[in-house]
Amino acid sequence: MWLWLPLRRAPLTISLFENLWVSLVTRFGLIPSAFCATALFASASGFAATPDFSQANTAGWVSVGADWLPPASGPGPVAFDPAHPHVGNNDPQGRQPTPRIGDVNSPILLPWAREAVKRANDEVLGGKTGFEAMSTCWPAGVPGIMLFTAEPVYFVQTPKEILILYQRGPNQRHIYLNVPHSKTPKPSWYGESVGHYEGKTLVIDTIGLSDKTFVDNIRTPHSARLHVIERYTISDDGKTMQGSAFVEDPGAYTTPWSATQRWRRVQRRIIESICAENNNNYNYFNMRIDPIPEAAKADF
After folding, report:
1. CB 80 within 8 Å of CB 66
2. Topology of domain 52-67+140-275, per CATH?
3. Whole-model pTM?
4. Residue 157 pLDDT greater than 60, yes or no
């Protein structure tokens, strides 16, 4: 039996498969795993040779941290200022959390980018809260979206496209498989992404990114010339996933650099979480430095 998933309606398709799965299990006692959306589609479309990032329609991935891990070798991302070490929440030593202060002496920064990091540092050291896209309802861009924490990310795979859904909404990415980039993509929050599989690894190439985002939670800027190549690989036991970002932007950095991120698998259904409608609307302690994005007029 051949099955087809509409490329633009992946969330609805998952829901339909869930209903089918429940019905079959209830009526005929069939094994649930045999009827998860991904397994059905893999059988129908020849996905057996490609990595399965969804495995079950209730499985997602949660990142292990909100900051980049340095690469094994070569230039890495902007690190924390040695004079202001960062302490995160739930520190195992019980230390008081401290804000993120970027190292303005990072060798990868061009002068204007260094000055931008310094201005952000000065604001935080002056008592303001450092901007984080996840905390202020702004799109994180690429590769910043890889640093979203606490809430899971989900992959929906089809032969021509991969849809990446982030529970912190509305954030989603479309990765078109085995096609070239457009000649002049219009800049957008998540750019234009094309991808392909290399064995067990999913490779995503993104250009056409707006310069309104940051590449990390230290508030490191980039230019519209940003080009990012992500690589995602699942561990052999299927419980963890490692991702890397290769970043090149001659408009902001002296050299290409790379960084890594890790995720752990969770069995959790995606829920509706519209950031601007939740408690981020409140400016607790007058610490917000950026307003929640609001649409002053219709896009079309």
Report:
1. no
2. Lipocalin (2.40.128)
3. 0.77
4. yes
Residue closest to 189 by CA, chosen among 131, 224, 141? 141
Q: What digits encode the pLDDT tens for the residues 50-103?
A: 899 987 667 899 999 899 999 999 999 999 999 998 888 777 888 888 899 999
Q: Which residues contact 72 (CB under 8 A, 6 or more apart)?
A: none
| Number of residues that this document lists for the chain | 300
Average pLDDT estimate for 247-273: 93
Q: Say yes or no to pLDDT of 171 above 90.
A: no
Local confidence band at 28 (pLDDT 50, 70, 90 cut-offs): very low
Cα radius of gyration (the chain): 20
Task: Indicate the burial class of 201 (C-beta count within 10 angstroms; 0-12, 13-18, 19 or more).
Answer: middle
Every domain of the chain with CATH number 2.40.128 lies at 52-67+140-275
* 273-295: b (≥16 Cβ within 10 Å) or e: eebeeeebeeeeeeebeeeeeee
3-state SS, one letter per residue, for the chain: CCCCCCCCCHHHHHHHHHHHHHHHHHHHCCCHHHHCHHHHHHHHHCHHHCCCCCCCCCEEEEECCCCCECCCCCCCCCCECCCCCCCCCCCCCCCCCCCCCECCCCCCECHHHHHHHHHHHHHHHCCCCCCCHHHHCCCCCCCHHHHCCCCCEEEEECCCEEEEEECCECEEEEEEECCCCCCCCCCECCCEEEEEEECCEEEEEEECECCCCCCCCCCCCCCCCCEEEEEEEECCCCCEEEEEEEEECCCCECCCEEEEEEEEEEECCCCCCEHHHCHHHCCHHHCCCCCCCCCCCCCC
